[in-house]
Amino acid sequence: MGTTLHRQRLRLSVLAALLLASRSHADDLFSCTPNVQGHAYDLSELGKLVSVSSVASTPPSRTTTTYTLSLCAPIPVREDAPAEDQCPPGTRACMIVTNDKDPHATRVISVIPLAMEANEHRLDPSLSLLDSSKSQQPLLIKLHGGQYGEQAQQLELELLCDPDTANSEPVIDAYTPSNGTLTMSWTSKFACATHSPSGDTPQTGEPSNNQGRGFFGWFFLVLFLGFIAYFAIGMWHNHFTYGETGWRMVPHREAWADLPYVVRDVFRRGDRGSGYTVLS
Fold first, then answer.
1. What's the structural domain count of the chain?
2. Is 232 part of a structural domain of the chain?
3. Structural contact between residues 151 and 113, judged by C-beta atoms closer than 8 angstroms
4. What is the mean pLDDT of each successive set of 10 residues along the chain, which is 280 residues long?
5. Where, by residue number, does the polypeptide cross the bilayer (predicted)?
6. Nearest alpha-carbon partner for 114 in 151, 73, 83, 80
C-alpha cells in the first residue's frame, strides 16, 4: 500500500515538473500577437522572412553582410548550403558576413545567430513601449538566445507606426560586437497597435465612410435630408388631406413655380445696377 502511494506521488511530481517546464518553455517563445501595456498588436505581416544586406568595399575584395529576420517562426534551413554556412535551426535573427574577390568565388567569413530558440538557448522575449510624443508609441522588441564564440547575442528591434507605410524593410542601425547587440528599426503600418487602452486605432490614408466629414459636410447633409423630409411630408399631407395628385401634391407649389422668375429678376436687377449713365 505504501509503495503504491509513493509511486503515485512520484508520478504526480514528475507530471507537475513536465507541465511547469513546458509552460516555462512556452513563455520563452515570441508571440506575433502580443499585448503590451494594454496595446494589442498583430505583427504577422512583419513576421515573415525578410533579408537586408549592406556591402562594404574592402580592396581588393568586397564584404557583404546579410541580416535575415523571421519574427514569427524560425528561419528555414537551406538545403543548398552547408550547415556551417548558415545559422542553426531555431534561429529568428541571423547575420552572415561573406567576402568575395570574384563573384563566383564567395567565402563565408562569419555566421552569427543573434536570436534563437533551441536546446539551452532561449529567446526570452522582452517587449516595451518607448516614450514618444506621437499617439502611437514605438514598440521595442528584444530577443535573445544567440551565441557567437564566448559572446552572447541579442536583437533589439524598434517598431515605428506609420499608417501610410506598407511595403517597407527593416533598417540596420548598428551592430556592436563588444556586447553582441544588433539594433534595427522598422517603420510600417503593420507596426501600429490594433487596439489601445484609449480605444484609438491608427488612421490610414484611406478614410472610412465617417471620416474626413467636417462642419460643412454635416451641414449640407442635414440640409439635404431636411429637404427630402419637407417634400415627403408635404406631399403626404396634400394627398391625404386635400386629395391632391401629381404636381398638385408638391407643398407650396406656387412658390416653387415662381422661383425661376424670381431668380431671373434678381439677375436682371443686378445687371441694371452695374451700368452707368453718361452725363453731358
1. 2
2. yes
3. no
4. 45 37 47 90 92 93 95 92 94 95 85 91 91 77 94 95 90 95 95 78 46 71 88 85 83 82 77 47
5. 215-233
6. 151
